[in-house]
Amino acid sequence: MEKKYFRKMAEKIITYNVNGIRAAVRKGFLEWLKAVDADVVCIQETKAQPDQLPVMELNEMGYDVFSFSAQKKGYSGVSIFTRKKPDHVELGMGMPEYDHEGRFMRADFGDFSVVSVYHPSGSSGELRQAFKMKWLDDFQNYVMDLRKNRPNLVISGDYNICHQPIDIHDPVGNKNNSGFLPEERAWMTGFLEKGFIDSFRVFNKEPDHFTWWSYRMNARARNLGWRIDYHMVTENLRDRLQRCVILPQAVHSDHCPVMLELS
Questions:
Q1: 217: which of 91, 125, 145, 168 is 20 to 30 A away, CA to CA?
Q2: Residues in the chain with pLDDT values less than 50
Q3: What pTM did the predictor assign?
Q4: Bridge partner residues of 41 (DSSP)
Q5: Is 176:129 a contact under the CB 8 Å cutoff?
Q6: Residue 81 is part of a domain; what is its CATH number?
Q7: Domain of 167?
Q8: Helix, strand, coil distribution of the chain in percent, nearest 5
Q9: Number of structural domains, the chain?
Q10: Long-range contacts, stretch 88-97, CB < 8 angstroms, 24+ apart
């Protein structure tokens, strides 16, 4: 029964940092979403309060809309759009310092859960980098505890970390930059070793596949990018992985979406 329910509920999952949902809508996001026909859509960096989301349009496409906004307007925020009403939606991790920034939410479908997460960036300076490293430890501890009761997890979102040299266009030049620091990469290795799968790398081990490009220096056209958006899947779901692809043709943001298909 569980497999049948899961197959119906979450066959196609998209993660997408839209860098402002209202700006993305103006660039054709809704038309694109209708065409891609996903079951669950995890959005990061909505930069919107709940009443600023295109709820009516999404409802017309068959999506229920759940969101967790930052207290600061125009900042951060995550959403989940789903074509099947979840049994439960959890907003935040119960940690005010992170929940005030609207970085984590979870939707449960039977014994299967999908998370939309937006990890902090440390690129603005030492204070935010320290915040990011503390978040990474607290996030990992939270997820390890969560997995005791929610063992089937897909944690989708913007992790703001490139794991390996093939995940970034210039690994030597970026070795001292937030997002590719040794301690961040070590954290990612440790996270995977605790029973998670970087689902894209199950299917594609080639370099030059990125999910974010700077708006400067014509970086996207030159494919000078970073792969920082992931579908992290618990090891016990490995046999259900069918496909995971990056969709760089979607240009509503400085990121692009990543699509995961599960049987």
A1: 125
A2: 1-10
A3: 0.95
A4: 14, 81
A5: no
A6: 3.60.10.10
A7: 2-262
A8: 30, 25, 40
A9: 1
A10: 92/68, 93/138, 93/139, 93/142, 95/138, 95/142
238/106 Cα distance (integer angstroms): 20
Q: Any idea which residue has 């207290």 for tokens?
A: 71
Stated as kind and residue range, the H or E segment containing 117 is strand 112-118
- How far is the C-alpha of 134 from the C-alpha of 97, rounded, in Å? 11
| Nearest alpha-carbon partner for 211 in 139, 156, 154 | 156
Terminal Cα-to-Cα distance of the chain (whole angstroms): 14
Can you read off the two tokens belonging to residue 127? 């204070």
**Cβ atoms of 72 and 99 closer than 8 Å:** no
Between CA 220 and CA 2 the distance in angstroms is 41
Q: How long a stretch of residues is the chain? A: 263
pLDDT at 172: 98
Phi, psi dihedral angles at 230 (to 5 degrees) = -140, 155
Query: How many whole angstroms separate alpha carbon 158 and alpha carbon 201?
Result: 16
The pair of structure tokens assigned to 245 is 């692809």
* CA-closest candidate to residue 99, choices 138, 140, 152, 64: 138
What residues are annotated to the active site? 158
Which string of DSSP letters, residue by residue, matches 185-242? HHHHHHHHHTTEEEHHHHH---S---SEE-SSTTTTTTT-EE--EEEEEEGGGGGGEE
Phi-psi region of 30 (alpha: psi -120 to 50; beta: other; left: phi over 0): alpha
Amino acid (one-letter) located at 213: W
196-208 tens-digit pLDDT: 999 999 999 999 9
Q: How does 224-249 read in b/e, with b if 16+ C-beta sit within 10 Å?
A: bbbbbbbbbbbeebeebbeebebebe
**Residue in 45, 65, 49 with CA at minimum distance from that of residue 57:** 65
